[in-house]
Design goal:
Layout lengths: L8 E6 L3 H13 L2 E8 L2 E8 L1 E2 L5 E7 L3 H8 L2 E7 L7 H4 L2 E10 L2 H14 L4 H5 L3 E15 L3 E6 L2
Parallel strand pairs: 1-9
Antiparallel strand pairs: 2-3, 2-6, 4-5, 5-8, 6-7, 7-8, 8-9
Amino acid sequence: MSNILTEPRSRETTINDPDVRRSLEAILNGQRSGVLATCFMDIPLCSQMAFAADEDLRTLIVVTPKQTAKHDNMSANPNVSFLVSTARNDPADPAQAQALTVTAFATELDGERRHRAVTLFTRKHPNLAAFASASGNAVMELRIGTYFLVDNFQQVTRIAMG
């Protein structure tokens, strides 16, 4: 018998909940990429992106060439969302996969903040070190407003930054 929820359920908590924090760390540290959603003039754009999460789980770092629609979109409208999923295109995904969506505010970093972000990013993605350091690329900090964790198909947990 399936344990998938047949009706949506939701709850609210904060990032200070130890069990929730462990779940966030497992997802963010276990996945190497996610999907960035930007919007310009009511036209959404989704982009697969490598990312790194800061230790405090309050920011994500992504890197993009400056000459891209996603960079233009973040410059014009810094409100973004980012999706990280543990799905593996497996029949068990509805019951077992987790999807983590964040709402965030994107800021291009420079100076020492950029250097620290590049260090964090390349620690997770050493093969992208030259890409992250290139002067023609923007290092973007996604300052998280809220997490939404979906598991067991329809169990939604809204996680405030607390």
